């Protein structure tokens, strides 16, 4: 055992840079954040150092109405975005998996939406949704779907929907590419077997494609949930969490607490809650993988 | 093989270490060399949020250039950061112990950051300088905490009402409104299918609070009476105008630049805005015939809000004395006057303000703002003000969205009360 370690030692040495990086830029901030969430750290004692106040920050924050709203909005946002991104992404992938001229061109051009920086997409959609000059309202009113232009981002009933539509648009291409890659690695013979057995398209999808894609779909879902849960840029650009609290989400609430109200302790609580939820999702994923491997 | 791995690793380490020490070494040599040849060469670091290309940016650059010419032993290192980032950067700097020497800060934030220990107490310097009594009360108060000076005001601004003269003529309005009733009826007259009578900002940021507070004060209320009947009247005044289509409900998303765009495109006949938009209107909308009048008076008389920037020196600044010399120099009337004219800003010093040779005594629009400054109140609500402001923003947004004003104001008052000093 000892000898084996000795032989492997240089190899571990190569891990040091990466390990140091992770420790300094990932683990230390996370640990520090959890510590801060138990302190009454504000702008006033940032320099002198803060006191530990136990669970006070957690009790304060978890009781506020805003936290409930933010948590609810984050969950609605994440599930709606992921659902539509994956479903539409799957349909597009199925379409682009067929043979037709310029297929590769269309595949790559689809990715443009995902490659555009969020700041740009967010500003664009802000204008598209505008009540006075917006293209969406222009289309809806000229097609006489609605009589009055809808103030998408300016009223509480539609603001979150508008932001979700934006993010779905951004996320489709990425999901499509991942699903497309997974589809192309599927064996052809099972499809032939299904055809021989007389399965129709829908049955093939349900009993062949879906089970075969399951592992990849799981990864796409988990990564997507983690990525979408951390929504921040779009909210900042499009609504600032408003109107009132209609698009208030957890990461943005944490930002507001820290950098607008300068209450770092309470902001730390939000960050810790987000971390906790994401760890749970990741653990759930690991458990499912393990179960699958055991089968 | 194992030996080779070790050699590569060791070689890599040596490279890294020598690279680090090398850069440090040459850096030291450079500074010591400078000191030897030119006596005392001092660098003053400045952080500000004067947007590149704006008129205030022009002023800042001109100040630095002229001072460097007159004082060859001083060099400046100016860093621009967007308005919202400056505060975050200051916090990071405070945590890391890396602050600049001079900061230009929005005056409502001055007290919070002074309390946090970001700014140095420069009472001795200000008293020795002896010109503090030349400044207007409101701006000076914003740079002070517990009777001590943590900076000095540089420029002031206030909100007033811009109006489209052509539209006024077409609607047959001859007098500019002076009271809430007159204002409301004029705005109603100006409202058509295409044009809103009035535009203001209700965005979820400090700008929204900035634009609403004048009405609160005009109604005769203040933040400590946010749930009072007067305060409710002020919110109702705005809500009614939104409900009746005089103000677009889209104000909920507009910041003050968006409000300007509405006015420039003749989508709004009147707007609430500050003097910094005067150069913008003159340059970008030369065909527009516009004027400015004072904020209307409510039950509690007329009132506007004081904005502006202050100079501050940071705690533990390396070049504290040089920084102060520079700031004091910028405040000399013969520098201060022309430079503020260049920057399109209004003076905070009464001697310069009363000097007839500058545009604030000559330009008809700027003159209105100078008059408005007299009734402009500072946002001096202690160190919790940023959080108080978020509650006000929420109240505004709820009102625009059509919720019941009584409930909104009473809830907001309950949230604000414990945060007041």
Automatic annotation (TrEMBL), chain A:
Any single GO CC term annotated in Swiss-Prot or TrEMBL for this entry: plasma membrane
PROSITE patterns: ABC_TM1
Record bears the keyword Transport: yes
Subcellular compartments: Cell membrane
InterPro entries to which the protein is assigned, alphabetical: MetI-like (IPR000515), MetI-like_sf (IPR035906)
One Gene Ontology term from the biological process aspect of the record: transmembrane transport
The keyword Zinc appears for this protein: no
Residues that span the membrane, as ranges: 12-35, 75-96, 108-129, 159-181, 217-238, 269-289
Membrane topology value: Multi-pass membrane protein
Family: Belongs to the binding-protein-dependent transport system permease family.
PANTHER family for the chain: BLR7065 PROTEIN, SPERMIDINE_PUTRESCINE TRANSPORT SYSTEM PERMEASE PROTEIN
Protein name in the entry: Carbohydrate ABC transporter membrane protein 1 (CUT1 family)
Organism: Saliterribacillus persicus
UniProtKB/TrEMBL annotation, chain B:
Acidic residues biased stretches: 27-38
This protein's UniProt keywords: Signal, Transport
Molecular function per GO: maltose binding
The keyword Metal-binding belongs to this UniProt entry's keyword annotation: no
PROSITE patterns named among the record's database cross-references: PROKAR_LIPOPROTEIN
Region (Disordered): 23-43
Superkingdom assignment: Bacteria
Signal peptide: 1-21
Keyword Transport in annotation: yes
GO terms under cellular component: ATP-binding cassette (ABC) transporter complex, substrate-binding subunit-containing
Gene Ontology biological process terms from the UniProt entry: maltodextrin transmembrane transport; maltose transport
Family: Belongs to the bacterial solute-binding protein 1 family.
PANTHER family: MALTOSE-BINDING PERIPLASMIC PROTEIN, MALTOSE_MALTODEXTRIN-BINDING PERIPLASMIC PROTEIN
Name the UniProt record assigns to this protein: Carbohydrate ABC transporter substrate-binding protein (CUT1 family)
Organism: Saliterribacillus persicus
Species classification: Bacteria, Bacillati, Bacillota, Bacilli, Bacillales
């Amino acid at each position: 055992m000892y000898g084996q370690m000795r032989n492997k030692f240089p190899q571990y040495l190569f891990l040091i840079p990466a390990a140091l990086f992770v420790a300094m830029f990932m683990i230390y901030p996370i640990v520090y954040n959890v510590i801060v969430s138990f302190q009454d750290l504000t702008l006033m004692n940032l320099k002198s150092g803060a006191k530990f106040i136990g669970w006070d920050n957690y009790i304060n924050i978890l009781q506020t109405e805003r936290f409930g709203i933010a948590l609810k909005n984050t969950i609605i946002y994440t599930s709606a975005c992921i659902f539509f991104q994956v479903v539409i992404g799957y349909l597009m992938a199925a379409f682009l998996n067929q043979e037709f001229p310029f297929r590769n061109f269309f595949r790559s051009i689809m990715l443009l939406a995902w490659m555009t920086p969020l700041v740009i997409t967010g500003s664009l959609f802000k204008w598209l949704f505008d009540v006075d000059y917006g293209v969406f309202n222009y289309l809806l009113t000229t097609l006489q779907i609605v009589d009055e232009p809808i103030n998408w981002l300016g009223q509480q009933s539609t603001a979150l929907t508008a932001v979700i539509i934006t993010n779905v648009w951004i996320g489709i291409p990425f999901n499509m590419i991942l699903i497309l890659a997974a589809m192309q690695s599927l064996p052809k013979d099972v499809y032939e077997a299904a055809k021989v057995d007389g399965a129709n398209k829908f049955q093939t999808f349900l009993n062949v494609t879906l089970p075969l894609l399951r592992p990849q779909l799981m990864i796409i879902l988990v990564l997507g949930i983690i990525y979408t849960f951390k929504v921040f840029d779009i909210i900042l650009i499009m609504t600032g969490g408003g109107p009132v609290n209609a698009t208030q989400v957890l990461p943005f609430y944490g930002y507001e607490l820290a950098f607008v109200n300068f209450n770092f302790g309470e902001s730390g609580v939000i960050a810790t809650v987000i971390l906790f939820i994401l760890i749970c999702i990741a653990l759930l994923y690991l458990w499912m993988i393990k179960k699958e491997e055991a089968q | 093989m194992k030996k080779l791995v070790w050699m590569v690793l060791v070689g890599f380490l040596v490279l890294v270490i020598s690279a680090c020490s090398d850069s440090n070494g040459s850096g030291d040599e450079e500074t010591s060399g400078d000191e030897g040849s030119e006596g005392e060469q001092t660098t003053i670091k400045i952080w500000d949020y004067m947007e590149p290309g704006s008129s205030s940016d022009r002023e800042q650059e001109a100040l630095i250039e002229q001072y460097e010419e007159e004082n060859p032993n001083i060099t400046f290192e100016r860093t621009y950061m967007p308005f919202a980032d400056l505060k975050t950067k200051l916090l990071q700097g405070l945590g890391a112990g890396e602050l600049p020497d001079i900061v230009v800060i929005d005056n409502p934030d001055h007290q919070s950051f002074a309390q946090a220990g970001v700014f140095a107490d420069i009472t001795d310097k200000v008293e020795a300088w002896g010109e503090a009594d030349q400044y207007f009360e409101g701006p000076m108060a914003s740079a002070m905490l517990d009777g001590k000076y943590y900076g000095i005001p540089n420029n002031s601004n206030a909100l007033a009402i811009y109006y489209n003269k052509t539209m006024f003529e077409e609607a047959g309005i001859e007098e500019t409104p002076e009271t809430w009733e007159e204002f409301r009826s004029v705005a109603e007259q100006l409202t058509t299918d295409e044009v809103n009578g009035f535009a203001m900002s209700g965005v979820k940021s400090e700008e929204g609070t900035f634009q609403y507070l004048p009405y609160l004060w005009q109604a005769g209320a203040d933040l400590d009476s946010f749930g009072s009947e007067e305060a409710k009247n002020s919110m109702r005044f705005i809500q009614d105008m939104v409900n009746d289509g005089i103000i677009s409900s889209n104000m909920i998303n507009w910041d003050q630049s968006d409000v300007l765009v509405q006015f420039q495109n003749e989508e709004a006949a009147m707007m609430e805005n500050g003097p910094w938009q005067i150069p913008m209107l003159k340059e970008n909308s030369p065909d527009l015939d516009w004027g400015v009048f004072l904020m209307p008076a409510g039950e509690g008389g007329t009132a506007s809000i004081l904005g502006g920037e202050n100079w501050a020196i940071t705690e533990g600044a390396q070049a504290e004395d040089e920084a102060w010399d520079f700031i004091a120099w910028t405040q000399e009337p013969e520098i201060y006057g022309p430079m503020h004219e260049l920057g399109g800003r209004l003076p905070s010093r009464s001697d310069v303000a009363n000097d007839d040779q500058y545009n604030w005594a000559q330009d008809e629009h700027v003159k209105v703002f100078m008059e408005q400054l007299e009734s402009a109140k500072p946002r001096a609500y202690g160190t919790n003000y940023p959080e108080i402001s978020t509650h006000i923003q929420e109240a505004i947004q709820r009102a625009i969205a059509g919720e019941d004003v009584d409930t909104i104001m009473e809830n907001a008052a309950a949230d604000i009360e414990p945060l007041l000093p």
